[in-house]
Amino acid sequence: MSEVPDTQAFLDPDASREYLRSWKNNVDRMATQAAAMSEQMKRLRVTARDENGLAEVTIDSAGVMVGLELTDRIHRFEPAVVAQAVMTALHEARATAADRAHDIAVETMGPDSLSARTTADRMRQVLERPDDSRQAAEDAPAERGY
Predict the structure, then answer these.
(1) Which helix (H) or strand (E) holds 48?
(2) Contacts of 48 (CB under 8 A, 6+ apart)
(3) 133/84 Cα distance (integer angstroms)
(4) What CA–CA distance (Å, rounded) separates 137 from 128?
(5) Bridge-based pairing state of the strands 65-70 and 45-49
(6) Tens digits of per-residue pLDDT, 63-108?
């Protein structure tokens, strides 16, 4: 963007017009980038599964579950284990979505953009919000005895 070095130059109509034109072009470019980023974020979908292959979860850009698939293997496990598998897959999907949101922000706004960093940080906060019902990942699944 053109800079107006001093007050005298700023009072020059041609220099002022060029400065304002440059400023407007910069604002327009940033608005276009922000719209592109927003559109990509809206389309973001992430699918993840738990390490035991019991559950596959798909989330949208807000971290809301939009799909859940359970395998036939769930019949061999206690309901609490299946529930934990769903929560584990959900947590994994949210972490992956946060990473993708960061990538989208940087790709569309640029790596030095404060807007990109702010958006990526906000998305990470939303997507990786703590889930009090989550058990420790090291809990081993218990198979049913039938």
Answers:
(1) strand 45-49
(2) 56, 57, 89, 90, 92, 93, 96
(3) 9
(4) 16
(5) unpaired
(6) 999 999 999 999 999 999 999 999 999 999 999 999 999 999 999 9
